[in-house]
């Protein structure tokens, strides 16, 4: 037989590997033909590789050729192999040819290439991890492995296209790639040029048809119900039947939380917010809120968890603010620290401790690390040319200089970093520098400073990263930023400043200088822990037992990924270094950026005044969490997500499940006799729960939220199909069926309440109170779906969880935060004047407060007249607010009494 | 024809008495068979091959390594080239290729009737009924496709004779 191949034809890879593996190669003649040569007489379009058999017949399908080699060596066909090969031909190949076309012919990179094949890669990974066998269709590597490996090799041999979170796929691919027949095939086909070896062939091919007319959509894809095996169903049913017994033992609450040997000890930090900036929504989602979800999740898993944060208080900005307000820097910090703490309390952030950096511990630990670095020769001294504003009579901190970026020419680059290209800048390198305070041009003066010798510490950092990164959950952007820093080469970094408000430098000749915030701010995590417990070193000098997760926006990555680890490694004191660096991209506001000075965007303290509950804010921010790419806050979208996902999907399901129990079964969970359909649903829920766990373990917070919504969608569908409200009126069998459906649904609601806890703690608690979920079930989230509300369990009073957001309400908020508050409302109804923004704000607060009062009364089932009186007050306030905002009265609809 | 209906027809043709239930997955409505003793099977040709084995008619998958590979090749051709093509040019190319391939053959493997003939027949049926005029098909294809009508009593025998 004769095999026809062509230079760079990807199909040659599996074919040659299969020939080598099945030892059919001896009698095989190989001919190389041009990519456009028609070898097979009956096919109109050219195709390679092709195998011409001794009978004269042709095999022109890559899989069929591979199959033939395996059949010759005595292999027997089986269903699972057939299934993989059919999947390869119909699903993988279209996706893969698109990805390879983008990569090789169009020169695209990154997500553009990975995007089309990601789902297929995940499918392989899931199947491998579910089978718990290292191979696709058997205990040894076989036809399916060779065909899929050969198809994927050109793409996956570049590690950047083999996502590290797909662990099972990773090890399967490595195992096969290291086998001799595969290695030889790879060398023959790719000739050590990597994927570019395919270019001569792929260029001549027509554009893959899946590229034409593809619709790109940001909407969540319709979930397909995966097929279930009997085994999966059996496992899910067994877990369910365990009931409350299946809960893991609860961890006793301790104070202080300290690492325990042999347990999973999770230390979580979120980037320290700078004290005199009120955080905006982007800051909140970037660090504290993301870290909060993860911390709550870890606690639900009964992991030993400590979550810390605090305000970063030193620096010039504080000094300047103090001058402005006529206070001391310390007074400024005290004032704003309280503002921050209030905002995070309102957002329900579950810090174990929220500290600050202006403490004695901070001085002690920072100076200790510095002394150790100095003693070990990692500190340099040098004279620095520095910008000084003669008009303001002081040296200018980096953030007080603006100018043109020397790298990319961006006009508003800051003195320390360019917002556009992200490169770090030495302030004196800025072109056309300006003092940010008085706008005069600063002059260059020299001053003696200390430097951290990063080049000398570079190898240690690199070695540490090589040990840490593989298999860790560092986000891709964090890996990328850290790697590119190392690639560009490390330079000594100045760690002192000519300031008063900071940690003093304990060295002769530097008495009037302090440490630069970027040297000591990251040490803040340690000192904050030290203020929480005197046993802080159990967390921070214990790298063997502690997993450190640090949350931040991507601009903070260099300081957490390189600068602090360098100091800590140089200090040689066995410090705990970051195990998982979780960085978000940026959140924009509507179509632009948040801007405090222009009043654009929602800031932490204002969110409370909108009348929208904290949990709704949390939900929406987490739903649009800039995970993987920038995202934008949009009022209209928030309204839409609230009304569709929360109200119609999640809220509707949980409320219906509870109402059926109350209305049809007197508040007692009915007997459940699971049919095979019920078991199937139960298994789907259990698998989605598993997926949720997998995602959250990898800190894929936004994606895990989708799992919750998927489960409630399944639940709604289940109720809709089974119609318990009709069956309850039927005969014995129908009533029995209504009971089972209601019982299963209310148990799904109970599960959802726990899964929701990291995201929406208040709503979660409300559901749990309504269902009277036993306390141990509220505090732990096991990996399986348990029946936590057994037959006979009595639930509490069920009431709606979410409120509809109205268009006019959202429109007025949009207006309010668009930066144009100063303008009078153009739509003022005749004879009425719009009030000032303060008055509007005050009224809004009143409306929100009154709304809370009414809700509370309703929840307590208070006297009807009392409620009616409070509702009347609320309506009156709303009317006043509408007048104040200049909205015409007609828009106050929906309150008409019939 | 929806895949489930096609598989049900195949069951009948194979003389399998017990009717399986099929679900469909995803946008392309790929058939899924939930088996009693093992994991579910996904994909038209995978399930079809499984049914053939269930009916103890394994000769329909080919007897020699060469025949087996050829059968699988045409099954793959069916789901990749025949399914999901809607433009007339595509269909014309498929029919042209098949026609020249079948010029010196009775069945896809030569002289033995196999599962490949059945599924290709099912797959082409809709085009031949709906879109195409006899002129594109040479007498040979025409003839071959008619010969292919699988097992006695299949409704397709009637379909072919009615249309042609």
UniProtKB/TrEMBL annotation, chain A:
It is found in: Cytoplasm, Cytosol; Nucleus, Nucleolus. Its EC number is 6.1.1.10. Pfam families: Anticodon_3, GST_C, GST_N_5, tRNA-synt_1g, WHEP-TRS. GO terms for cellular component: aminoacyl-tRNA synthetase multienzyme complex; cytosol; nucleolus. It catalyses: tRNA(Met) + L-methionine + ATP = L-methionyl-tRNA(Met) + AMP + diphosphate. Residues 839-895 form the WHEP-TRS domain. PROSITE patterns: AA_TRNA_LIGASE_I, GST_CTER, WHEP_TRS_1, WHEP_TRS_2. GO terms for biological process: methionyl-tRNA aminoacylation. The keyword Aminoacyl-tRNA synthetase applies. It comes from the Eukaryota. Catalyzes the specific attachment of an amino acid to its cognate tRNA in a 2 step reaction: the amino acid (AA) is first activated by ATP to form AA-AMP and then transferred to the acceptor end of the tRNA. Plays a role in the synthesis of ribosomal RNA in the nucleolus. This is Methionine--tRNA ligase, cytoplasmic. It comes from Muntiacus reevesi. The lineage of its organism: Eukaryota, Metazoa, Chordata, Craniata, Vertebrata.
């Amino acid at each position: 037989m004769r095999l026809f191949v062509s230079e760079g034809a990807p199909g040659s890879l599996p074919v040659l590997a299969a020939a080598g593996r099945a030892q059919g190669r001896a009698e095989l003649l190989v001919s190389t033909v041009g990519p456009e040569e028609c070898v097979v007489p009956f096919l109109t379009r050219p195709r390679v590789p092709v195998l011409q058999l001794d009978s004269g017949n042709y095999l022109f399908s890559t899989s069929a050729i591979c199959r033939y080699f395996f059949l010759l060596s005595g292999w027997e066909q089986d269903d699972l192999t057939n299934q993989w090969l059919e999947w390869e031909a119909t699903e993988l190949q279209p996706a893969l040819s698109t990805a390879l076309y983008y990569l090789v012919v169009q020169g695209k990179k990154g997500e553009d290439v990975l995007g089309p094949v990601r789902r297929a890669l995940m499918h392989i990974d899931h199947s491998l991890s579910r089978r718990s066998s290292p191979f696709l269709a058997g205990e040894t590597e076989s036809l399916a492995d060779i065909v899929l490996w050969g198809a994927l090799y050109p793409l996956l041999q570049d590690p950047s296209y083999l996502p590290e979170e797909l662990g099972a796929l990773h090890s399967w691919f490595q195992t096969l790639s290291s086998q001799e027949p595969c290695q030889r095939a790879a060398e023959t086909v790719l000739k050590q040029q990597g994927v570019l070896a395919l270019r001569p062939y792929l260029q001549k091919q027509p554009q893959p048809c899946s590229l034409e007319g593809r619709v790109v959509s940001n909407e969540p894809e319709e979930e397909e119900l995966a097929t279930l095996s009997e085994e999966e169903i059996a496992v899910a049913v067994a877990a369910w039947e365990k009931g409350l017994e299946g809960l893991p033992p609860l961890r006793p609450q301790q104070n202080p939380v300290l690492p325990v040997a042999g347990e999973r000890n999770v230390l979580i930090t979120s980037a320290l917010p700078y004290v005199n900036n009120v955080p905006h929504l982007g800051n909140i989602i970037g660090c504290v809120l993301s870290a909060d979800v993860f911390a709550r999740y870890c606690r639900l898993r009964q992991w030993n968890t400590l979550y810390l944060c605090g305000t970063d208080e030193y620096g010039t900005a504080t000094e300047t603010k103090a001058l402005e307000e006529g206070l001391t820097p310390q007074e400024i910090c005290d004032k704003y620290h309280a503002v921050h703490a209030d905002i995070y309390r309102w957002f329900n952030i579950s810090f174990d401790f929220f500290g600050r950096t202006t403490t004695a511990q901070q001085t002690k630990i920072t100076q200790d690390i510095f002394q150790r670095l100095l003693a070990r020769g990692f500190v340099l001294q040098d004279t620095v040319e520095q910008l000084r504003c003669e008009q303001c009579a002081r040296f200018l901190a980096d953030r007080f200089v603006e100018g043109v970026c020397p790298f990319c020419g961006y006009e508003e680059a800051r003195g320390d970093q360019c917002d556009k290209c992200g490169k770090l800048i030495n302030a004196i390198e800025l072109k056309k520098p300006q003092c940010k305070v008085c706008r005069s041009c600063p002059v260059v003066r020299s001053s003696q400073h200390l430097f951290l010798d990063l080049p000398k510490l570079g190898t240690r950092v690199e070695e540490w990263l090589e040990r840490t990164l593989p298999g860790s959950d560092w986000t891709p952007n964090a890996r990328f930023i850290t790697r590119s820093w190392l690639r560009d080469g490390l330079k000594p970094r100045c760690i002192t400043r000519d300031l008063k408000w900071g940690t003093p430098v304990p060295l002769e000749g530097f008495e009037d200088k302090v440490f630069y915030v970027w040297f000591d701010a990251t040490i803040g995590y340690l000192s904050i822990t030290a203020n929480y417990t005197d046993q802080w070193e159990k967390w921070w000098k214990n790298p063997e037992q502690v997993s450190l997760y640090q949350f931040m926006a991507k601009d903070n990555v260099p300081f957490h990924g390189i600068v602090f680890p360098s100091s800590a490694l140089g200090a040689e004191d066995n410090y705990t270094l970051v195990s998982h660096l979780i960085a978000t991209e940026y959140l924009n506001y509507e179509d632009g950026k948040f801007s405090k000075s222009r009043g654009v965007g929602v800031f932490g303290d204002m969110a409370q005044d909108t009348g929208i509950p904290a949990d709704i804010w949390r939900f929406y921010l987490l739903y649009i969490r800039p995970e993987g790419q920038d995202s934008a806050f949009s009022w209209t979208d928030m309204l839409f997500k609230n009304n569709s996902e929360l109200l119609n999907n999640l809220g509707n399901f949980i409320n219906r499940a509870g109402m059926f129990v109350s209305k049809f079964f007197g508040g007692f969970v009915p007997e459940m006799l699971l049919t095979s359909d019920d078991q199937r649903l139960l298994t789907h829920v259990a698998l989605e729960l598993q997926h949720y766990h997998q995602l959250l373990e990898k800190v894929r917070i936004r994606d895990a939220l989708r799992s919750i919504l998927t489960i409630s969608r399944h639940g709604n569908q289940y109720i809709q199909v089974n119609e318990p409200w009709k069956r309850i009126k039927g005969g014995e069998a129908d009533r029995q069926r209504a009971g089972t459906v209601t019982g299963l649904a209310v148990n799904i609601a109970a599960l959802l309440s726990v899964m929701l806890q990291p995201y929406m703690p208040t709503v979660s608690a409300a559901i749990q109170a309504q269902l009277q979920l036993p306390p141990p079930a509220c505090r732990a989230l096991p990996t399986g779906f348990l029946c936590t509300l057994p037959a006979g369990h009595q639930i509490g009073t069920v009431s709606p969880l979410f409120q509809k957001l109205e268009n006019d309400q959202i429109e007025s908020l949009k207006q309010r935060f668009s930066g144009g508050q100063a303008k009078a409302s153009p739509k003022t109804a005749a004879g009425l004047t719009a009030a000032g923004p303060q008055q509007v704000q005050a009224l809004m607060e009143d409306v929100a407060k009154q709304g809370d009062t009414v809700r509370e009364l309703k929840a307590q089932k208070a006297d009807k007249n009392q409620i009616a009186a409070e509702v009347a007050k609320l309506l009156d306030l709303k009317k006043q607010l509408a007048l104040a905002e200049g909205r015409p009265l007609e828009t106050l609809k929906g309150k008409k009494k019939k | 024809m929806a895949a489930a209906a096609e598989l049900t027809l195949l069951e009948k043709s194979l003389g399998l008495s017990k009717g399986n239930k099929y679900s469909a997955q995803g946008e392309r409505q790929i058939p899924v068979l939930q088996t009693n003793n093992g994991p579910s099977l996904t994909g038209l040709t995978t399930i079809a091959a499984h049914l053939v084995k269930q009916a103890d008619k394994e000769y329909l998958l080919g007897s020699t390594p060469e025949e087996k590979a050829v059968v699988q090749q045409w099954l793959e051709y069916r789901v990749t080239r025949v399914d999901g093509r809607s433009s007339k040019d595509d269909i014309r190319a498929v029919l042209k290729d098949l026609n020249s391939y079948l010029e010196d053959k009775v069945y896809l493997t030569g002289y033995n009737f196999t599962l490949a003939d059945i599924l290709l027949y099912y797959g082409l049926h809709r085009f031949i009924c709906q879109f195409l005029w006899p002129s594109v098909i040479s007498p040979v294809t025409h003839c071959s496709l008619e010969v292919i009508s699988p097992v006695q009593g299949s409704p397709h025998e009637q379909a072919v004779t009615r249309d042609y």
